[in-house]
Design goal:
The protein has about 200 residues and is mostly helical. Helix content is about 65%, strand content about 0%.
């Protein structure tokens, strides 16, 4: 899947979320469950929900009990995000499994799915920066500053999209190789987080 197709799915997910703009709204993925499009939509939906979790937890007047519950949701969301990225990378690994690497093939600093992770977050930044650049209750200087930042974000999107497409082309021709490295997050694992396994043994 090329970057333009993935970004279109990210934009769709962001817009779908903002119809109701509620973090606990029903999740309805419009793509077939066994498709990479389904994974891309799910990836951005997770990012979009977490974006708004992060907004809420920064409320200076938030109730501490609510903040703790929200932190737990953010942790779970981070794990879900990581798992989904690994599913996407497994798709790409399978897609290029029959490619014979060239003798001088190299590895990339990040896998395709982690590059798409960045593009997904960028779609959220662009959506919300555009929103701020047009906010009628903001000052003219605020709107202009946000418009300037939006221009930078759009350039970042173009550059990252090009880099992703170049990476996919390199993988398809054997100029680069890829592996799926599990993130092995430790803080959610009862066997690896000392706070969790100590409290469990107690």
């Amino acid at each position: 899947m090329k970057s333009a197709a993935a970004y279109s799915i990210f934009e769709q997910s962001v817009k779908d979320y903002h119809v109701l703009d509620l973090i606990d709204q029903p999740y309805n993925n419009p793509y077939p469950a066994d498709s990479v499009e389904h994974l891309m939509y799910r990836k951005n939906w997770i990012d979009t929900i977490q974006w708004h979790y992060e907004d809420l937890i920064r409320d200076p007047n938030i109730n501490p009990v609510e903040a703790l519950a929200l932190k737990r949701k953010i942790d779970a969301s981070n794990q879900d995000r990581t798992d989904t990225v690994e599913y996407i990378d497994s798709y790409f690994l399978d897609q290029y499994s029959s490619v014979t690497p060239q003798a001088d093939a190299t590895s990339n600093t990040e896998s395709p799915a982690w590059a798409y992770d960045r593009l997904s977050i960028l779609s959220l930044k662009i959506y919300h920066m555009l929103e701020e650049s047009e906010r009628s209750t903001a000052s003219a200087s605020h709107r202009q500053q946000c418009a300037d930042k939006l221009s930078v974000l759009q350039t970042q999107r173009e550059d990252l999209s090009l880099a992703i497409d170049q990476l996919l082309d390199d993988l398809s021709t054997g100029r680069k190789t890829m592996k799926v490295y599990k993130q092995m997050k430790m803080y959610n694992d009862e066997a690896l987080n000392p706070v969790l396994y100590s409290s469990k043994s107690d």
